[in-house]
Write a structure and sequence with these properties.
This protein is α+β, with helices and mostly antiparallel strands. The protein has a six-stranded antiparallel barrel with strand order 1-2-5-4-3-12. A six-stranded antiparallel β-barrel has the order 6-7-8-11-10-9. The chain has three domains: 44 residues; 126 residues, Rod shape-determining protein MreC, domain 1 (Thrombin, subunit H); 77 residues, Rod shape-determining protein MreC, domain 2 (Thrombin, subunit H, Beta Barrel). It contains five helices and twelve strands. The protein is 32% helix and 27% strand. The chain starts with 10 loop residues before the first helix and ends with a helix. The relative contact order is 0.13.
Length: 294
């Protein structure tokens, strides 16, 4: 009797073929980035619309609240003032650090750094704070001239840097991620070091600190500017623990980030002076620049 069902390759053969195909695709993507265009297309036209759709309910609630106001102009002015306040708080951070630095470096008053990097307000769409990958998704991407390695900060301090770009969104790695490191210095003593992420949003580790280093509990650490990626003098954290164990070559130093890594909803994308050339971002210019453009 003829079988009613056509028999194809066995399940084992299919599995082997799929495994081989997967390995070929992974090797091709790792060596030649063959799937970068595909990932970019999926990020821009599939993942981003899905994220946007997920946020639609909360946006509808906000829209409903706005309808209760009889003066739309007041809402626009309030939003603008909030952005100005965020920028002002960041400027105050740098001014406070500069004042402490001037006490230590009186001979370099004429060369003190100025506050005024180009910045752009961005909103956090999603956050991932598991111990192995601490990242956030921002609602600004290549359409706003965001670039790989761009620093992000909130109203209290440095949060991280951009590691992946989409057309309308970007992914930022937080300073608490285990794979992240940032050059820092102690504001009080000028001691330079590197702060590594620990996987805990409340803790950073300063490695390779000698036992006799001038370091105290409560010392503020800021970006040193070394490496050229992060602008200098932005607050990073505050020393919370110093252990000088006998027999160990270096002290164990922990710091608490000053940025609200797990609470901030809005952040600033910062253009370092080396990157500010032909970037034109309407959200990041002041009123005087807008008037000149008109």
């Amino acid at each position: 009797m003829q079988s009613l069902f056509l028999q194809g390759p066995s399940v084992t053969l299919r599995t082997i073929l799929l495994v081989i195909a997967s390995i070929v695709v992974m090797v091709a993507d790792h060596r030649w980035h063959a799937l970068e265009t595909v990932r970019d297309a999926i990020e821009s036209y599939v993942v981003y619309p899905l994220r946007y759709t997920i946020n639609v309910p909360s946006q509808l609630v906000d829209w409903g609240d706005e309808l209760l106001s009889s003066h739309q102009q007041l809402l626009d002015e309030n939003r603008k003032l909030q952005e100005q306040q965020l920028r002002a708080q960041v400027s105050l951070q740098k001014l406070s650090v500069l004042e402490k630095e001037n006490d230590r470096l009186r001979k370099m008053l004429s060369a003190q750094p100025k506050v005024g990097e180009l910045v752009l307000v961005a909103e956090i769409l999603a956050i991932d704070l598991d111990p192995y990958k601490q990242q956030v998704i921002l609602n600004k991407g290549r359409n706003k001239d965001v670039y790989i390695g761009q620093p992000i900060i909130d109203a209290w301090g440095v949060m991280g840097q951009v590691v992946h770009l989409g057309l309308f969104s970007s992914t930022a790695l937080l300073i608490s991620d285990p794979s992240h490191a940032i050059p820092v210095q102690v504001s009080r003593s000028g001691l330079r070091s590197t702060a590594f992420g620990t996987g805990n949003s409340q803790s950073l580790e300063l490695r390779y600190i000698p036992h006799n280093a001038d370091l105290e509990i409560g010392d503020v650490i800021t970006t040193s500017g070394l490496g050229g990626r992060f602008p200098p003098n932005y607050p990073v954290g505050r020393i919370t623990s110093i252990e000088r164990a006998a027999g160990e070559s270096f002290a164990t130093v922990l710091a608490e980030p000053v940025a609200h890594l797990d609470r901030s909803r809005e952040v600033l994308l910062v253009w370092h002076k080396m990157q500010v050339k032909d970037v034109v971002v309407s959200e990041a210019v002041d009123d005087e620049s807008e008037g000149e453009k008109k």
